[in-house]
Amino acid sequence: MINIIWLGLLIIGIVVGVATGNMDGITRGILKGAENGVSVSFGLVSILVFWLGLMKIAEEAGLIQSLAKLLRPLARFLYPSVPPHHPAMGSILANMSANILGLGNAATPLGLKAMRELQELNPNPRVASDAMCTLMAINTASLTVIPATVIALRLQYGSSNPTMIVGGTILATFLATMVAVLLDRYFRARDRRKRGDR
Amino acid sequence: MEWADTLSRWALPVVIASIVIFGHFRKVQVYETFVEGAKDGFPTAVSIIPHLVAMMVAVSVFRESGALELFLDYLRPVFQALHIPIEIVPMALLRPISGTGSLSVMTDIFQTHGPDSLLGIMASILQGSSDTTLYVLTVYFGSVGIRNARYAVKVGLLSDLAAAVFSVMVVYWLFT
């Protein structure tokens, strides 16, 4: 998929440039794009160094486990098919907490662990279970408190107030997560009706 | 909107202070631990250079050649009627497929319109409010050998659409 899109953007760009006689545009695009790629990466160094340092403290202090405790009732509601004391519930909670805290590096391994443990509960190992679909709905909606990368890039491009988007981002991501949970419930119910069980 | 402004102003300081204080009370050597974790910052930034260069070159060729304008002219009437700024559309389309791709469009928007323009704010919120759905689904389901994802792809993409619509609405509501 990503191959097609990358190829498409480049080739369509070049073809349009050639067709409209805008050869300079193509060259300018290549040089500017490469330069921006490098400068943006280096612009992220400062915030990444700071943020990963801070996140290490959060990790060592067990902030994930503390937040997981608070989220337990919510997880029981979201994952009715997972027994509350099954290890999968622990990993699901840890993954959810890491996502909210913006600990992307910690969230993925925890989510994959949750997936393996959910697979043990799954009667049909080739077909996604209800709980797996919910885990995906919540992970792809990515509820986060601090969008650190975006703030860093806004700073780099001379924003007078790089953090002014935080409130709006939290609101938008919260609403989108609600929609994801509702859609997950809706399609689960529809799937059940279709298959005629329960 | 007062509360959103307050939230934006306070979120970062409060999160940072809470983590550091919480760490201290949990007997974490905060300074040493910070430095330990921060060491990963530079390699992480360097490791994304190839991805960013690849995507930014493609996005920038697409724009500089005039192809983006052609594409947007085509879509303009539809989105103008919906009060959705047309420039955000390519980013919303790329968001579920490639995180670097949408990041590249976002910096492109910052460069052309400025990060504090309505469009720049919209792009910022869109980038922060969703994830690379198709990538996440592939990695997670792939890791345990699930072949049939049932409705998960539909839910993921529809909630990305919701995130895009909410990003636009939130910006109109809070910043105009």
How large, in whole angstroms, is the Cα Rg of chain B? 20 Å
Number of strands of chain B: 0
Estimate the mean pLDDT confidence of chain B: 91
Overall helicity of chain A? over 70%
- Let me know the average pLDDT of chain A: 90
Task: Tell me which protein chains meet in the greatest interface and how many residues each side has.
Answer: A-B, 104 and 105 residues
Report the order of strands and helices of chain B.
Answer: HHHHHHHHHH
Number of domains of chain A: 2
State the shape of chain B.
Answer: globular
End-to-end separation of chain A: 37 Å
| Alpha-beta content class of chain B | mainly alpha
Helix content of chain B: over 70%
Structure write-up:
The complex is a heterodimer of chains A (198) and B (176). Chain A is built from 8 helices and no strands. Chain A is mainly α. The model of chain A has no long low-confidence stretch (mean pLDDT 90). In chain A, helix 4 (87-101) runs antiparallel to helix 5. In chain A, 79% of the residues lie in helices and 0% in strands. Chain A is globular. Chain B is an all-alpha fold and 176 residues long. Chain B has 2 domains: 1-47, no CATH class; 49-175, no CATH class. In chain B, helix 4 (49-64) packs across helix 7 and helix 7 (99-113) runs antiparallel to helix 8 (118-128). The longest helix of chain B has 24 residues, at 2-25. Chain B starts with a helix and ends with a helix. The mean pLDDT of chain B is 91. The interface between A and B is large, with 104 and 105 residues.
